[in-house]
Structures are given as C-alpha cells and as structure tokens.
Amino acid sequence: MTIKVENAHGAVFINNDVIATIAGAAAIECYGLVGMASRNTTGGIANLLKKENLSKGVRIHSEEDGIVIDLFVIVQFGTKISVVAQNIIERVKYSVENQTGLKVLKVNLNIEGVRVQA
C-alpha cells in the first residue's frame, strides 16, 4: 500500500514499508526500549525482532487527513513505562512527520512484553 503526496511539482508515492522503517528506527533509539516485537503474536509470546526487521513491528493505517501508526514493542524491566512510552510516541511522530511531510494523527503503542537486560 502506498500513500500519495501531491504538491505543485507533481506527486510522490511513499510505500507503507518506508514509513514503517522510519518509525521503527526512530523508536529503537529511545531509552528503555529493548526492541520491536512481532505484531503476529500467537500464544501470548512476543518475539523480539532483529534490527533489520524493524518494520515488522509497525503497522500503518492511512486516513483522509493523515496516518495512524501502531507500534509493537518490548520495554526494559525497571524503567517507568509511561515515560518510555511518551518518549517513543513523540520521537516517532516527529521523525515520520519531518522525513515524509505526512501528518501523523496518532501513534498507538502496544507493549507486548518486558525484558530483563543483563
């Protein structure tokens, strides 16, 4: 699926995978985040994705006046989840809007697990 952005010079088509990669890369930079989780969890077990599969933990929904981003993440044990979540949401929204020019309506954060880092 692609999103069309038009201006005076023509049209640009942005694939959802590109937006998902931007969102995943922005999220993974945040303190307290262990990694992205597979969005297809079966049996209640969240799988930690490798860095090259960041876009698999992101779902993009296109709406008339912008986009909605769903993130599936695993956070670090011992961090304040509300602070980590707010930081991730703000950074993802800023990065996607800054790099694509699209309006981000919402960033929904789904915490799939908590992992102890040694």
Q: Overview of this structure, please?
A:
- Helix content is 28%, strand content 38%.
- The chain is an alpha+beta fold and 118 residues long.
- The strands form two sheets. Strands 3, 4, 5 and 6 form a four-stranded mixed sheet that branches.
- Strand 5, helix 2 (81-100) and strand 6 form a beta-alpha-beta unit.
- Helix 1 packs across helix 2 (81-100).
- The longest helix has 20 residues, at 81-100.
- The termini are far apart.
- The model has no long low-confidence stretch (mean pLDDT 86).
Give the helix/strand layout.
Layout: E1 2-7, E2 10-15, H1 16-28, E3 33-36, E4 58-63, E5 66-76, H2 81-100, E6 104-115
Parallel strand pairs: 5-6
Antiparallel strand pairs: 1-2, 3-5, 4-5
Helix pairs in contact: 1-2
Labels describing this entry:
118 residues, alpha+beta, 4-stranded mixed beta sheet, two-stranded antiparallel sheet, 2 helices, 28% helix, elongated
Report the structural category: alpha+beta
Order of helices and strands: EEHEEEHE
- Roughly what fraction of the amino acids lie in strands? 35-45%
Shape by Cα distribution: elongated
Q: Helix fraction?
A: 25-40%
Mean model confidence by pLDDT: 86
How far apart the termini lie comes to 39 Å
Rg over CA atoms: 15 Å
Q: Low-confidence stretches at least 5 residues in length (pLDDT < 50)?
A: none
The profile of the biggest β sheet is:
4 strands, mixed
**Secondary structure: number of strands:** 6
H/I helix tally: 2
